[in-house]
Amino acid sequence: xxTNFINAGGQTTRGAQAELALRPWxxxxxxxxxxxxxxxxxxxxxxxxDYLPTKGKTAIMSPKFTASIGISYDDGRFFGxxxxxxxxxxxxxxxxxxxxxxxxxxxxTLGYRMKSFGxxxxxxxxxxxxxxxxxxxLSGVYSAKxxxxxxxxxxxxxxxxxxxxxxxxxxxxxxxxxxxxx
Length: 182
Description:
The chain is mostly beta strands. Helix content is 0%, strand content 54%. It starts with 10 loop residues before the first strand and ends with a strand. The relative contact order is 0.18.
């Protein structure tokens, strides 16, 4: 993999984030978080002897909203949790002419802790259900580009576009784990 650095000028980023988690109540602990992000480019992007009109465009890889909500349970023997995550769409080009759509994932864990016996201390078995529901999605930008479509520059030059590349989100998986202390 080759990494390229692009000097795209200044950027203004403003946002807010909040999260709330509660202590266990009857063995249940809820959790919720959310983030709002407003990130814009402050300059036009130099390409060759011209500039792409990027001033005021949304910054690449900057989802406007993200959120998580979940609940955990643990009574000392049985434990588990269920979490849902949402990530808003994100641009993959500085011209904002290509993006990945918003995606959502959900994960769950169920487990049981056994009493210690012999030399085994607190053995447990756990089942993780990963990415319940959404198995076809793009999870991120692998290679961002200046523009995906041919665009006329500030000085009139035709600037050819090229396609960004993406990471694919993982499919559904079930993982079983058994562990113990000694």
